[in-house]
Amino acid sequence: MKEEMFSSEQLQILYDILDLIIPSSDEYEKPSASIILEDSANLTEEFILLANSALYKIQELGNFSFNNDWEKLQNEEKLSVINIFQKKENRLFTNFCLSVINAYYTNALVLKALNTKSIPPFPEGNQLKEFDYLMLEHVFLKGEIYRKTE
User: Fold this and answer.
1) What is the number of other CB atoms lying within 10 angstroms of the CB of residue 30?
2) In terms of CB atoms within 10 Å, which of 24, 25, 84, 93 comes out highest?
3) Residues 33, 92: contact at Cβ < 8 Å?
4) Euclidean distance between CA atoms 133 and 139, whole angstroms
5) Euclidean distance between CA atoms 57 and 50, whole angstroms
6) Backbone φ and ψ of 52, nearest 5°
7) 80-124 pLDDT, tens per residue?
8) What residues pair up with 25 in beta bridges, in sequence order?
9) Is 139 helix (H, G, I), strand (E, B) or coil?
């Protein structure tokens, strides 16, 4: 399905960028952000639109700055293109990063790797460990701490 949304060159750029935004971590056994492309059915329309806009600009900047296609650029040149993109298209870059982060931290595989107990839509809620609820008694005894409106 992702092949229908992005060209092969765009997919390569997208994998590279996602791995830069959230790299994998062997220490914490955490996958990189490119894992979100493995479950492309859960990609939002907003993510796809932002990704397409960002990829178009990055391809354009790569061709303009280095007269080369993305896959022919060295890693330093790729980073340079991304830095130029971030400076020239700050709002698009920020929105794209936020969309990536949102897609990453709602991905079931990521939540499992991060060892979260509940995954969306939290059907059983987050269970709290047993503790002494009397610790909260002073908060309860304070009463209302907000102003009533009419």
Assistant:
1) 15
2) 93
3) no
4) 11
5) 11
6) -60, -40
7) 999 999 999 999 999 999 999 999 988 888 888 877 765 555 556
8) 30
9) helix
131 to 118, 125, 126: CA distances (angstroms): 20, 17, 15
Contacts of 132 (CB under 8 A, 6+ apart): none
Length of the chain: 150
- Residues of 41-80 as b/e, b for ≥16 C-beta within 10 angstroms? eebeeebeebbeebbebbbebbeeebeeebeebeeeebeb
pTM attached to this predicted model: 0.71
- Dig out the tokens for 55 from the structure: 């990829």
Three-state DSSP string of 78-122: HHHHHHHHHHHCHHHHHHHHHHHHHHHHCCHHHHHHCCCCCCCCC
The two tokens of residue 110 are 């990521």
Q: What does the alpha-carbon distance between residue 54 and residue 74 come to, in Å, rounded to a whole number?
A: 20
Digit-coded pLDDT (tens) for 14-68: 999 999 889 988 887 888 999 999 877 778 899 999 999 999 999 999 888 889 8
